[in-house]
């Protein structure tokens, strides 16, 4: 018999006395062979170095495993205890493969999908902030849900491996920097963006139903303002971040539904701490009233000058009221920073596209609307009614859904004084502690 036809078989044995997963995922070929699909960094098998990607497992504790489902195979490994023996046919590769194939075929919502893998990444020490919630138990695409890492919006993940361009290996960054927990699987940006694109029609229908709370006139006004960026925001996945020593944030951005109390919060902070906080004086094209001084409450400019400055992208945002234009110039924000003060902005969320840079270094706080059942018992005013509160809560929920991945902090404004105290404490803490910031702020 020629040596090329000889199948090399070897036995692998190790002790498994705990519930710790082995840290591998398996796949079954069309011929019914069980192959090692991936090895999770830091897991039991990775630490032992006993298996490699592409190895064929023929027996587990003497039981032939050919023609079994992946779920059954993973269960056999998970439930194994004591002395575990595997009969394997080693992969013929000289080095670990980037991935098993350049084509991954999976089932999702009854559809057969193919995702081509065409990238190999050079991985250094990379951290990302999750911009969406993820639960592997709810994922129909993940090869093994037990191998997945669950996370919420805002969680920081250390990327361990990008060898598979559909399923990255990552660890959630916690309070223990030297944690030895093994890595797990998370969807890559490419896979998550594909998934989001497939679901986009369902999400648009859902948004249309939610917006119906406003009534037609309110809905059209709201969607005209926000719909153009809903589609872009739907595709967010991860944001690369870096940890910096404590530093002072330059700008406090207050987001929230109209009428939620942002103006009162802003004015209270400036009145209580005038040496620390300031609000950029707006520009306007209206004529000054009697006793109004240019540069005190407003900067008065001509319509032509304001239109010219808008064309030159000198305004953060602007609008029209009673036939006059009003706007916030970026230079007025910069002048507050020059005075070593924190600029307070209660702006529309679209302004974050300009503000989320190292120049403005914003701390973004979302002031959420109180729930009706929490606020009504404390308010006897005839101005407070179920309908207005319900509309406020609905708009607040829509804003959080669309922009929540940008929030550094969320405060539910059940009590305005308590909200202000919480905000003051949070600002003190963030400016005196190490911070995760977008990598674009540094490099």
Automatic annotation (TrEMBL):
SUPFAM superfamilies: P-loop containing nucleoside triphosphate hydrolases, PDZ domain-like, SH3-domain
GO function terms (MF aspect): protein serine/threonine kinase activity
Gene3D superfamilies xref list: 2.30.42.10, P-loop containing nucleotide triphosphate hydrolases, SH3 Domains
Keywords: Kinase, SH3 domain, Transferase
SMART domains with a match to the protein in the record: GuKc, PDZ, SH3
Protein name: Calcium/calmodulin-dependent serine protein kinase
Similarity-based family: Belongs to the MAGUK family.
EC number: 2.7.11.1
Record domain SH3: where: 123-196
Keyword Amino-acid biosynthesis tagged: no
The organism's place on the tree of life at top rank: Eukaryota
PANTHER family: MEMBRANE-ASSOCIATED GUANYLATE KINASE MAGUK (PTHR23122)
Sequence ranges assigned to domain Guanylate kinase-like in this UniProt record: 249-428
PDZ domain mapped to chain residues: 11-92
């Amino acid at each position: 018999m020629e040596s090329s036809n000889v199948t090399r078989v070897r036995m692998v044995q190790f002790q498994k006395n705990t519930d710790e997963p082995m840290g591998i995922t398996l796949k079954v070929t069309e011929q019914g062979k069980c192959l090692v699909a991936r090895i999770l960094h830091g897991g039991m098998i990775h630490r032992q170095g006993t298996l490699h990607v592409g190895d064929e497992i023929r027996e587990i504790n003497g039981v032939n495993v050919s023609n079994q489902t992946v779920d059954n195979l993973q269960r056999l490994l998970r439930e194994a205890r004591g002395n575990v023996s595997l009969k394997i046919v080693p992969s013929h590769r000289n080095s670990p493969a980037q991935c098993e194939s350049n084509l991954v075929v999976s089932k999702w919502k009854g559809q057969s999908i193919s995702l081509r893998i065409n990238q190999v990444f050079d991985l250094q020490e990379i951290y990302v902030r999750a911009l969406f919630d993820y639960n592997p138990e709810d994922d129909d695409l993940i090869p093994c849900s037990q191998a997945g890492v669950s996370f919420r919006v805002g969680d920081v993940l250390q990327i361990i491996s990008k060898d598979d361009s559909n399923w990255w290996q990552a660890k959630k960054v916690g309070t223990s920097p030297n944690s030895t927990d093994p890595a797990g699987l998370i969807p890559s940006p490419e896979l998550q963006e594909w998934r989001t694109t497939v679901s986009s029609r369902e999400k648009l229908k859902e948004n249309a139903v939610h917006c119906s709370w406003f009534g037609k006139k309110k809905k059209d006004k709201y969607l005209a303002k926000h719909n153009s960026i809903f589609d872009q925001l739907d595709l967010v996945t991860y944001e690369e971040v870096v940890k910096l020593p404590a530093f002072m944030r330059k700008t406090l951005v207050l987001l929230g539904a109209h009428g939620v109390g942002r103006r009162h919060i802003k004015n209270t902070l400036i009145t209580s701490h005038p040496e620390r906080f300031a609000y950029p004086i707006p520009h306007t094209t209206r004529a000054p009233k009697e006793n109004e001084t240019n540069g005190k409450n407003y900067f008065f400019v001509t319509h032509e000058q304001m239109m010219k400055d808008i064309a030159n992208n000198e305004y953060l945002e602007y609008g029209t009221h009673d036939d006059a234009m009003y706007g916030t110039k970026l230079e007025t924000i910069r002048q507050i920073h020059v005075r070593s003060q924190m600029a307070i902005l209660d702006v529309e969320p679209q302004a974050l596209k300009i503000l989320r840079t190292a120049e403005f270094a914003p701390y973004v706080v979302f002031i959420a609307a109180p729930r009706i059942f929490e606020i009504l018992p404390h308010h006897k005013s005839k101005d407070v009614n179920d309908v207005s509160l319900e509309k406020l809560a609905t708009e607040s929920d829509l804003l959080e859904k669309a922009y929540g991945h940008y929030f550094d902090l969320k405060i539910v404004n059940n009590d305005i004084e308590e909200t202000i105290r919480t905000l003051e404490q949070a600002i003190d803490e963030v400016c005196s502690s190490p911070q995760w910031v977008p990598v674009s702020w540094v490099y």
